[in-house]
Amino acid sequence: MANPAPIRSFLQAAKAEEVAPALRVVQMEGLAILKIIKHCKEFSPALVTGQLLGLDVGSVLEVTNCFPFPNREDDEELEAEGANYQLEMMRCLREVNVDNNTVGWYQSTLLGSYQTVELIETFMNYQENIKRCVCIIYDPSKSNQGVLALKALKLSDSFMELYRSNNFTGEKLREKNLTWVDIFEEIPIKVSNSPLISACMTELEADTPVAQGDLDRLQLSTKPFMERNLEFLMECMDDMSQEQQKFQYHYRNIARQQTQQQAWLQKRRAENMARKAAGEEPSPEEDPSNPIFKLIAEPSRLETFLLTNQISNYCNQINGVAGLSFNRLYLMKALHEN
Amino acid sequence: MVLLIKRTPSGILLILANGFEILDSEEERQSSYDSDPGNEEDTPAEPTSAVGNRYLQQNASDSDDSEEQKRVIRSAKDKRFEEMSATIDQIKNAIKINDWVSLQESFDKINKQLEKVMRVTESERVPNLYIKALVILEDFLAQALANKDAKKKMSSSNAKALNSMKQKLKKNNKQYEDLISKYREKPDIEVSNEDEDDSDQTETMSDNESEVSSDSGSDTDDNPDVRDLNMIKKKDTFMDKEFKKDPRDITWDTVNKKLKEVVAARGRKGTGRVELVEQLSFLTRVAKTPAQKLEILFTVVSAQFDINPGLSGHMPINVWKKCVDNMLAILDILNQYPNIVVDDMVEPDENETQKGADYNGTIRVWGNLVAYLERIDVEFFKSLQCIDPHTKEFVERLRDEPLFLVLAQNVQDYLEKTGNMKAAAKVALKRVELVYYKPQEVYDAMRKLADLSEERDDVESEAEESKWSDERRAPPSFVVVPEVVPRKPAFPESSRVFMDTLVSLIYKYGDERTKARAMLCDIYHHALLDEFSSSRDLLLMSHLQDNIQIMDISTQILYNRAMAQLGLSAFRNGLFTEGHSCLSELYSAGRVRELLAQGVSQSRYHEKTPEQERLERRRQMPYHMHINLELLEAVHLTCAMLLEVPNMAANTVDSKRRVISKTFRRFFEISERQILMGPPENVRDHVMAATRALSQGDYQKAFDLITSLQVWKLLKNKDAVFQMLKDMIKEEALRTYLFSYAAFYSSLALDQLSKMFGLSESTTHSIVSKMMISEELHASWDQPTRCIVFHDVGLSRLQALAFQLTDKLSILAESNERAVEAKFGSGLGGGGLDGLPLRRRDAGDYAAAVGSGGGGNRWQDSQSYNQGRQGGSTMGRHGGGGKPFGPGQTSGGGGGYSRDRTGQTRGTVSYGGRHSYQSGSSKMDSSARMGYTRAP
After folding, report:
1. From the CA of B595, how many Å to the nearest CA of chain A?
2. Dihedral of CA B864/B870/B871/B872: which sign?
3. How far B849 CA lies from chain A's nearest CA (Å)?
């Protein structure tokens, strides 16, 4: 919560608002990352969420601590409890002198399938209270392959504006020059530790040249991962086709309406000709009360956009993994030859 | 009865009338015929009043002791009646001296008295006394008016009174029209029965009888006939009065006037429809000129249509037959006097029909032969709908079909002669619609029946002639028209020839709807005669499937019927795939009954309004036109089984991917889910059991199960079909076996395989080779050992998924394409041809992106399907412009068809003949959506 210090004058506050610099980087404490990884991994494959705490300093968002939310179930009572828990937790943390500013939330995901409407909604909720917030996404399944799959996301400003007006017609999107790539913005993450911790770590580091992560990276079996990815991709394609059908239906409706309008107009014109011949006033050529002139609402494109994002995400993953696999295979081949 | 007699004098009349009606009305009637109209009035009138009086007195004396209260009331009533009868006496006196002034007075008086009487008796019924007075007055008036000399002699005041009386009476009598006519039919009977005893009655009866017979010359003695005659005569009474006296006096004018009168009464309240027809048909006999006779006949026919008031019921059959007779009579006249023109466009001159037979110019008569004919057809159809098909009545009714065909043929001949080809085409359609559903055997039977009935009719009609001769002779017809129209139906030997001649006439001259219907009938008939290919060609080149949705419901039903018949025909010819594609659409919604209009199916989800239900019932096909639904279902399911079983075996991994027949799949799933499998009972059970056997490769069991169905006996050349079916089942069993069990073999000997399925080695070889070529079976031949060597090419899951993904992608790309088309469709103008290369390039990119080798291959498949679709749509566009039908195209392969061909080849560059048909049929499937189902 951006608590403006009461000492600040209004002028200062206004000035500060004006020059709020764009978010460049998310700086995460090692502690927070480890806590996130621990939480997510323990509960995998169930999806979990938690609160991020930290400070907003200029163009850097510092995430210094976090705490997990209890496993949410769809119950009113539990939800209220969750809110209580959150408040209680923050109070406790403040008492031990931890940053108690909410700067966003983290969540785990499965194979990067996070681009959903729910995420956007949550983000909008956070955005209402916290001007600058971020969502950290951790993918335990991907991390198994020796990569730290950590991502910091935020919604782009133009998208948020559009979302507020809830108007995702093709025209508006073109006006804003918004494409599916522009929904999310990924922010680079910088891991920082206090020098003390860094020193400790160097002290603790083993002398072996290979770490666990390196071994993971050499794993040859990528099949399950690829299969899962493909399955998800196919689901997305199905959804996509459905969306497409919606649009087709929409266009068909519009075409039908147009022919109806034409027919009506022609009839009206013929009538007017007759009226003219009879020396009467011609009736107007537009009749807003007629149902055939009612505009047919265009279906929202949000879902399509999200799906496209999702698909591109899957494709990237597959591409990445496939590339890595080839490398490994060549490596293995070379080893065998040797 | 006695009690009632005592109550009111008017009651006496009523009850006695009822009691003695049968005996007395006849003789009364006949006696009234004989007597001079002048005398007639006097004789019954006087005794009535006397009787009435006497009765009143009796009443008074009878019941004076007990019921004093009542007597007072009664006497009040009686007093009124007495007054009335006194007035009637006055009227009679005035009539005797021809004093119209006093008549007028008494008329006013009696009207006032009537009011009082009505008030006293508190009844709605007008007393008969009053009616009698009216009748007397009316008759006298008519007499006075007719007698022109006497009218001239009258004093001015008298003549004035006469005129005013005429008007008053006319106005007044209109209210009591019914009662008067009723009274005329059975006037005061008490005259005879009060005074004469029974023996007298019989005497007079016989007297009358003899009188009648002497009078009309040829009356028979058997009673029912006399009764009948009388019934008719009664209705014609007032006509008779005018026309009977001296037939030579009847002029065109009188007939015309009468006709106008009768026609004006039509549709009014209180005009009996049957009576109207009787009156009119009487008039036809006295018509002066042929044109007039024609005019009257037209009114008779339309009045006959009116007899049945409701839309749901049908016309009584005897009326229908008479109606047909009348139509034939009309044709006779028209043929004999070619200068008479029937037209419904112009309102003809008032006195057009006055022109006699010797008139030279054209005479226009208002009427529409085709409309009448169509109406007769509709009534025939309706009667067949209504009659229970399991009764003898239905068969009897069916025998009337040749009668209608004769009429239609004659009408058509006449129309052709007069050059009205458009109407002739319409009539031809009616004939086609009666014949198209008849296989050759039924057609032959009908032909024979027509010949037979013709002979019998001759005999019968002679008998009838003699029977009714008296009636016909009584008022001799002025316009005698000899029968010039051939009454014998001329049926060609084969129904095909019959259809061909009619249909080509229709294609030449008919309007759009007539042509479409004729085309459908033609298709149906071709299919019925097992000429599947010509039938299919007709359907495809007519493009009926494109615009059937916008046609009327009955045409849609006809279309559905034609499709069903086409499917059956394909099955009989052993073309199971085609049969399935024809039938699957009908069965997809599970409302086949409704689609073929052979019964109403109850929908669980939405109730029909009574209105809808009635409409639907009116659309039903009569029983003799039904297509056997059980047979249809058996054919459909068998076809589906033959296609679906190997398909299911081939795609075990994801069975949902390629579904040929959803209906079949659903049925199969249901039967799979059953825990306890009983012996098969209905068609579906049999086919499902056969499916199970077939999927295990047990072709013999499958064949036995299918052939054990009872419905097959309805199939023409059953044995040949069974032979084909058996071969097909063997083949499919082999394919299924290979699909299911190939993975467990490393090699398989050819002779082993051919022995297993009872197929010749060459057939087995060709089937297996075909499967290898189409990459359904991953194997190769080992020629020296005559073995199939299987390659182990099981797909990994990842590969399978990749394939699935490419399928999904192709679907998506296609729908994308369609969306673009929808948006810029009009802009492309010249068809999808411009868009094609572009898409191809895109498609190539996609295929490359997808990567894995098999993907590209599959993509091509689906792409070629796209092209087919594209080609189909351009074809539709090309064909839609020109008229699909041309003369002489019925023999198949006309100009239109070849044009379509070119359109198709332009759309798809590399296409084989068989392929092009398939694309057509798939289009046929998709567009053959039954519009009827959608109709509210």
Report:
1. 27
2. positive
3. 11
